Amino acid sequence: MSEKKCSHHKSKKKKVIRRCCAGLMIFLFLALLTILIVWAVLQPKKPRFILQDTTIFTFNVSAPNIFSTSIQATIYARNPNSNIGIYYDNMDIYATYHNQQITYYTQIPPVYQGHKDVNIWSPFVYGNNVPIAPYNGPGLSEDQQNGGVWLDFKVDGRVKWKVGTVITGHYNLHVTCSAYVPLGDRPGNGGIIVGNNAVKYQLSRSCDVSV
């Protein structure tokens, strides 16, 4: 009799475990389905970035492969969503020339961006005596002499989406703002002198955003 009771209890316990597992799977499925439906209805859009202007303080190739620069870049960021907020975190901005990084990383403070809100950042992007590839040195020197250079200002960071009280996990954010930046206060280049050897240029260039 005791053996039958043990086997009966074991069987009953297995049934309870199976029912609990089935209930948990159904709950997870319904929760995931709800999130997907809400996500589809809201249709989240990527933030929009614009490189508004740059102020050139220093731009100098001092040796064939040594480069120094100091540029203040004004970045416009807008959240196009009506029902979704965006948390920006771990964001760094830097400049590249022909796919080579030519400045240090400059951190942009973390911020929450509400529905349809706009943030404007004006970080300094700089580098002192930065070694550059030998094939890029002559190109930078030539561009400087010609009065302008194509640069990519890049922002790398992480974002989280906020829907009501629900906050998602982190997503990687990559922004690339390509722009032809004039150099020197030459007639017709649109530069405005704003200080000793500092010239500001209005650019208004849309950026490529990947999330």
List the helices and strands and how they pair.
Elements: H1 2-42, E1 48-63, E2 66-78, E3 85-97, E4 100-101, E5 106-108, E6 111-113, E7 118-121, E8 124-131, H2 137-146, E9 148-163, E10 166-167, E11 171-182, E12 191-195, E13 198-206, E14 208-210
Question: How would you describe what is shown here?
Answer:
With 211 residues, the chain is an alpha+beta fold. It contains 2 helices and 14 strands. The strands form 2 sheets. Strands 3, 4, 5, 6, 9, 10, 11 and 14 form an 8-stranded antiparallel beta sheet that branches. Strands 1, 2, 7, 8, 12 and 13 form a 6-stranded antiparallel beta sheet that branches. It starts with a helix and ends with a strand. One of its GO terms (biological process) is defense response to other organism. InterPro entries: LEA_2, NDR1-like. Residues 77-177 form the Late embryogenesis abundant protein LEA-2 subgroup domain.
Key descriptive features of the protein:
211 residues, alpha+beta, 8-stranded antiparallel beta sheet, 6-stranded antiparallel beta sheet, 2 helices, 24% helix
| Mean of residue pLDDT values | 87
Largest sheet properties:
8 strands, antiparallel
- Over all CA atoms, what is the radius of gyration? 27 Å
Distance N terminus to C terminus?
Answer: 65 Å
* Structural class by SSE content: alpha+beta
Unreliable spans: none
Number of strands: 14
Helix-strand string: HEEEEEEEEHEEEEEE
Helicity level, as a percent range?
A: 10-25%
Continuous helix count: 2
